Structures are given as structure tokens and as C-alpha cells.
Amino acid sequence: MNKKKLKIARKKVDQLDKKIFNLIKRRTKIVRYMLSLKQFKNQIVDQKRINVILKNIRKKSVQHGVDPKITSRIWKTMIWSFINYQKRNFKKK
Questions:
Q1: Distance, CA of 73 to CA of 80 (rounded, Å)
Q2: Alpha carbon distance 78, 12 (integer Å)
């Protein structure tokens, strides 16, 4: 094992993690705004939209040579995490 190369690769992953974090932060702001537009709690989960998103992610993953099991799992986790966030923060109007 080449420790120097591994250290460099880990630094690259750390840099990507920072970018991913900032994207999640931006996504959270948008989701918070979307939540303010919803009048009823049952508007939080749109299963049809979720299915379309996951289908598109799988397709894009295959096209770009990325393991679709990884991307599907990440997107499912992200989607349901934001759904949970919305449910916890929903306020009746």
C-alpha cells in the first residue's frame, strides 16, 4: 500500500465532501421554502415524483458507469431524510 498516494486520495475525498455538504445546505434551504408552500402534511410525500427521480438516477448511473445500487441508495436516503425533515417541521396554517 502506498501511504502517500492514499493520503492524497483521502484529501480529494475530503474536498468533495465539503462540496457535497454545501450542496446539502443549499438543498435544505430550498426544501424549507417548499415546505412553506405546502398547506397539508399529506402533500409532503409525492411517491410518483420519488419514483421518477429514482428511475432517472438509475438511468444516469448506468449511462455514466456509476454503480446504480450506490446512487439509488444515496438518493433514497436523501429523499427520505428530507421527507422526515419536512414532517418534523410542518406547521399547520
A1: 11
A2: 22
